[in-house]
Amino acid sequence: MDESDVTEMPMDEAVETVEVGLEAVKEAEVEVEAAPEPSPIQEEAAQDAGEAAVPQEAAPPEEATIPEEPAVPEEPPAREDAAASFAKAGKGAAVAAAGAARHVAEGFAAIRDVRTAARQRSTAQTELKALKADLADRQGILQHRLQIDGDYERIVAESTSQLQAAQAELAEAQADAEALQAERSQLFDQLQATRARNEEELRPYKNSMDAARGRADDAAAALTEARRTVRSAETQLSDATRRRDQRLASANRTVENAQERLRRVQAEIDKLQGDPDAPTTALPKMRDELAAERAHLDTAREDVSRVTAECQQMVDTAQAQLAAHRQVLATAERQAEDAKAEAASKRQEYERLHKQAKAQEDQISDAMDARDKSIAASQRNQADIASRISAAQDVIDEAVDIHSTPEVTAQLAEQVQAQQAEVEQREQEVHELAQSEKRLRKATRTRRIAFFAALIALVLLVILLVWFFGFRR
Question: Whole-model pTM above 0.70?
Fold first, then answer.
């Protein structure tokens, strides 16, 4: 067996012993709090017992103290020193445990007896409380039956009168509800007839409004088409004017070019006529060219006149078409405005008549809603009256039942009397149990305190052992 086995085994057992002692202390704390305050003599005895236990608990550490010795070659191994220390500490612990064992056993038995007595007293109190509650219920029932039976004639007479009055009130309320339902049915038929008549009367106006709206839509479509046509005619006029200008400019440029060439040929002829050395064939040739240029110039001037006439005719035609389309546009605009105004007038007329018809229908609907509210209120009133009838009938039935069963009242009175006696007996038992518990607590107070003191001493001893062996290790 090595050194670790010698030191670790007592440590584990000591820790387990501490845990057991702490659990026992926690279980016993409740009894200490419920016990009466100790007298000064008992407190002095408990202090003397605690002081007597302290030297015994402190003895093992003193015996376990080993004085230092000078080192010698024959020094025993550390394992043997630990074993010897453990043996001495175990002996001291056994002595202390033997001294506390008697106090622990007596204190544990005292705590157990006190807890048993407290449990018996608590159980008796719970049963007594339930018995008193049941007695109170029975007394209330008995008092109610006696009151009803003692005032039977008056209760039946008043309840019967209330019942008859409520029944008459219920009949009147039912008649009123039937009359309201009949009025509502008449109003419903009137509403259906009014709606059918209004629909028949408004149909021509609606058809007229729809037709006027259709014509306004057609006129608006025609106006859109006329505007598109005018824009197209304006584009054609612009194109004709542009082509005219382009063709006239081209023709005029042709005339100007012919005139320029004619001037150059005439200047060349004049130069040849003033030059005596000029070839004889050159002058006739230039004169032929001059004649050709004059003919070309005449043709160009004729083209200018022809182009001017043709282009002007195209422009005039485009202008005429534009003017015609603008007249059509003006007519379409006027017709669209007239159709739009007519449609608005027809719509206003229809809406005015429809609003009047709707007002008539709403008036009848409001009257129906008022009847519905009155019917609902009547139904609530009938339900209230029915509940009062039921309550009055219940009172009468209960009074008749109690008055016709006096044996039940007598039996209940006997039960109440017997239960009162049982309650008094139980109260005496609870009082005796409480006194017995009080006496037991007082008689075992010293032993229970000694039990706690022994547990504390045991815990301190274990802590010292744990500290000692932990320090030695």
Answer: no
